[in-house]
Design goal:
The complex is a heterodimer of chains A (about 425) and B (about 290). With about 425 residues, chain A is an alpha/beta fold. Chain A has 2 domains: about 35-160 and about 295-380, Response regulator (Rossmann fold); about 165-290 and about 385-405, Response regulator (Rossmann fold, 3-Layer(aba) Sandwich), CATH 3.40.50. Chain A has 13 helices and 16 strands. In chain A, the strands form 4 sheets. A 7-stranded mixed sheet of chain A has the order 2-3-1-4-5-6-14, with helices on both faces. A 4-stranded parallel sheet of chain A has the order 8-7-9-10, sandwiched between helices. A 3-stranded antiparallel sheet of chain A has the order 11-15-16. Chain B is mainly alpha-helical and about 290 residues long. Chain B is built from 11 helices and 2 strands. Chain B has a two-stranded antiparallel sheet with strand order 1-2. In chain B, a hairpin with a 2-residue loop joins β1 and β2 (about 135-140). In chain B, α2 (about 40-60) packs parallel to α4 and α3 runs antiparallel to α8. Chain B is globular. The N and C termini of chain B lie far apart (about 40 Å). The chains are: A alpha/beta (about 425), B mainly alpha (about 290). At the A-B interface, α8 and α9 of A face α1, β2, α5 and α10 of B. Chain A: It comes from Roseiarcus fermentans. Chain A: This is Branched-chain amino acid transport system substrate-binding protein. Chain A: InterPro entries: BCAA_transport (IPR051010), Leu-bd (IPR028081), Peripla_BP_I (IPR028082), TAT_signal (IPR006311). Chain A: Keywords: Amino-acid transport, Signal, Transport.
Chain lengths: ~425, ~290
């Protein structure tokens, strides 16, 4: 056995070199580290319809990225951890906490109504985790969380339409049809109902409309006799509101039974999806609703270059289901999260991911996203138009854009028409 | 103005028919058999989900499916009483409360597990939308039919309880189980029949409710509350009283929400409280 005597100095020298050798690559090349994106979504419950496009979108992104994300020339394994909020704000906060503390996600995402997004954003703000959300109107997100327009938030960012913008768009669309400008309102006692009542009522006089508002009611209701009586005696020719799909179906049945025949029915939430209007059958024709994204949107994905029409076609071909406006926002949520991660200076530092979101200037499939432009701090407003359900070719009804006054870049496909009562 | 008030009353009376249907089974078990079934609302919701599944598979009208299921509903009520609830008979008021409370929790969570928390509604077809013009008022054909069904069912049950031999036996056992036992009328034989009839009313209520309005696994208790109020308002033991109780609740809801939509449920409870103060035994109580 041969021995190699190693002196004290020699040992220290080679030891130090070896240490340096193992430490160096980390500094110089950034070894692959699993990037974790947390997602809180209403997979079940009354809001489950908002998650319909999610599985397909996730599959598509996985195929596109190969389960990896390229950051500064290094391919990092990518993990998207999905948790169900069960359409319940308390549950949303709980699963967000779990994603932060146990799964230690690098960036948090969430979508679909203030009931899902706000509790998740609040958890992230407290824990110092970068949070990027969409599909939640800006006002309930910013002011519903007691946002101060002078300060904004440190960690949380949200992009969607502004409710003020939406009310303007509705009034523009109603202007197209000759009515007595009397609006019957169905605003329930929840986040959306309270916000809508304030914004619509505040604008009514300026726009020359009169609002018949029987008051906030608790859901589930099922008994709409008093509202229908009030609308009939006031002669309301426009019905506007924000109701979940089953409630709206109950209202429509009662309205038919009691011969309420308005010229316009604009119902947010309940008529946004093809699946939600299906139970109405022929009565779905002529219903109008705000449109946040459609196959005819003029925007392209900054991630893959796919156009809105191509994305919609791919979805319909793969699933056999009709496309809905949530599809664009599902896709955009991951696009924007990837963009922030790619521009982050260090993946180990939450603040640098946060700064990458704050400085975002990205062309997504739902429009340009830039959180410096507002209208409120930490928010970015996406374009909004009004659509009307008209007889379709491939599917029973198509949501056709009928008014683009507030977002002229989105092409219109028809005119707002009066509902024909059979 | 007169027209508006008349309309509110008519629509309230019609929805009162639905409430009465819902409360009918409770009126039987509470008023005649003298026990409180906490799971009453949940059992109706359970039947609604059964109808949902079967109409989905068969593609038939929910009313047709309900008609075919009537014997099954009777059998379920019979089995429930014979093998579960019967064990608590004669042991005071508390054990049956606990047993049905447990049943309520089991049904709610079972449905949540099986169907998820989504809100559902069944489609009744064209009849659901048909309207009838009676003078100055528009009346829905479907609510009118439900009301007439409630009246018919109550007339039938009333005749069953107070005109037939088995009805007399049920009442005899309810009045004094020990004395009835002495003359050979054991509650173990009589009560399951009564509960079977309750099962039938539950199925009828489930089919009417699931077409009229929405349901989800957790809605049972809130529907039970309205049913309770209808039974107590009308007076224990009086089936016609239950119908009047349901009508009063429906009309009160409509007048409440005429003031402000948020007053709908409040008005219902207020009327109930006022009635309790002035006539605690109910409007048409049988002594």
């Amino acid at each position: 056995m041969t021995r190699f005597p190693v002196g004290r100095r020699a040992f220290l020298k080679t030891g130090a070199a070896a240490l340096a050798a193992t430490a160096l690559p980390r500094v110089a090349f950034a070894a692959p580290k699993t990037v974790k994106i947390g997602l809180v979504a209403p997979l079940t419950g009354p809001l489950a319809i908002f998650s319909d496009n999610l599985p397909w979108t996730l599959d598509r992104l996985k195929a596109h990225t190969g389960g990896q994300i390229d950051i500064g020339g290094t391919k990092h394994p990518l993990e998207i951890i999905v948790r169900d909020s069960q359409s319940n704000p308390n549950r949303a906060a709980d699963v967000a906490k779990g994603l932060i503390l146990q799964d230690k996600v690098d960036i948090m995402t969430a979508f679909a109504t203030p009931e899902t997004v706000n509790p998740v954003a609040d958890q992230c703000e407290v824990s110092g985790v970068p949070c990027l959300t969409n599909d939640c109107p800006l006002e309930p997100w910013f002011f519903g969380r007691n946002g101060d327009p002078k300060k904004g938030f440190d960690w949380t960012f949200n992009y969607f339409f502004s409710a003020v913008n939406m009310a303007e768009a509705y009034y523009d669309a109603w202007d197209q049809v000759k009515t007595n400008k009397v609006v019957g309102a169905l605003w329930p006692n929840d986040n959306d109902g309270l916000a809508f009542s304030k914004i619509f009522t505040g604008m009514a006089e300026k726009r020359g409309y009169k609002i018949v508002d029987p008051g906030r009611f608790d859901l589930p209701s099922g008994n709409y006799s008093a509202q229908i009586a009030a609308f009939k005696s006031a002669g309301a020719e426009i019905i506007a509101g924000v109701l979940p799909p089953p409630e709206f179906t109950a209202f429509m049945s009662a309205a038919a039974q009691q011969s309420l025949q308005p010229k316009i029915i604009s119902m947010a939430k309940a008529t946004e999806f093809p699946a939600a209007i299906a139970p109405l059958g022929a009565r779905a024709e002529g219903l109008s609703v705000e449109v946040w994204w459609s196959p005819t949107s003029p925007f392209k994905s900054g991630l893959s270059g796919i156009t809105s029409q191509e994305l919609s076609d791919a979805y319909e071909k793969a699933t056999g289901n009709q496309t809905s406006m949530t599809l664009g926002f599902r896709h955009a949520l991951f696009e924007t999260a990837f963009d922030a991660l790619k521009r982050a200076k260090s993946l180990d530092d939450p603040e640098s991911i946060r700064d990458a979101i704050a400085s975002m200037d990205y062309a997504s499939i739902v429009g340009p996203i830039n959180f410096k432009k507002g209208p409120y701090p930490n928010t970015s407003a996406t374009p909004l138009v009004i659509g009307q359900w008209k007889k379709g070719t491939k599917f029973p009804f198509d949501l056709v854009v009928v008014d683009n006054t507030t977002a002229p870049m989105v092409p219109v496909g028809g005119k707002m028409a009066e509902i024909v009562h059979g | 103005m007169v027209e508006t008030i008349l309309n509110l009353i008519v629509q309230g009376v019609l929805i009162g028919g639905l409430y009465a249907l819902f409360a009918l089974g409770l009126s039987l078990s509470l008023g005649v058999m003298r026990f409180v079934n906490i799971a009453h609302g949940d059992m109706i919701v359970l039947f609604s989900f059964v109808l949902l599944s079967l109409t989905g598979v068969l593609g038939w009208s929910p009313f047709l499916v309900a008609l075919i299921l009537l014997p099954v509903a009777f059998g379920l009520g019979w089995l429930l009483q014979r093998f579960l609830l019967q064990r608590t008979v004669g042991k005071g008021i508390l054990p049956i409360l606990l047993v049905t409370f447990g049943l309520s929790i089991i049904i709610q969570n079972g449905l949540l597990e099986a169907y998820g928390p989504n809100t559902r509604k069944l489609s009744g077809g064209a009849i659901e939308l048909a309207a009838l013009r009676l003078g100055p008022i528009d009346v829905g054909v479907y609510p009118l039919l439900v009301f007439l069904l409630a009246v018919a069912l109550i007339a039938g049950l009333d005749a069953f309880l107070y005109r037939t031999a088995i009805g007399a036996r049920i009442r005899a056992v309810a009045d004094d189980p020990a004395a009835a036992d002495l003359i050979g009328l054991t509650s173990a034989r009589i009560y399951p029949v009564a509960m079977g009839v309750v099962g039938i009313t539950m199925l009828v209520a489930a089919s009417c409710m699931s077409v009229w309005t929405n349901f989800d696994p957790s809605i049972g208790p809130s529907r039970l509350l309205a049913a309770f109020e209808a039974v107590v308002l009308g007076g224990l033991g009086s089936l016609w009283g239950t119908l009047i109780g349901g009508v009063i609740i429906g009309v009160a809801q409509n007048f409440g929400s005429q003031i402000d939509a948020s007053w709908q449920i409040l008005a219902q409870h207020l009327v109930f409280l006022v009635a309790l103060v002035f006539r605690p035994q109910g409007l048409f109580a049988r002594s």
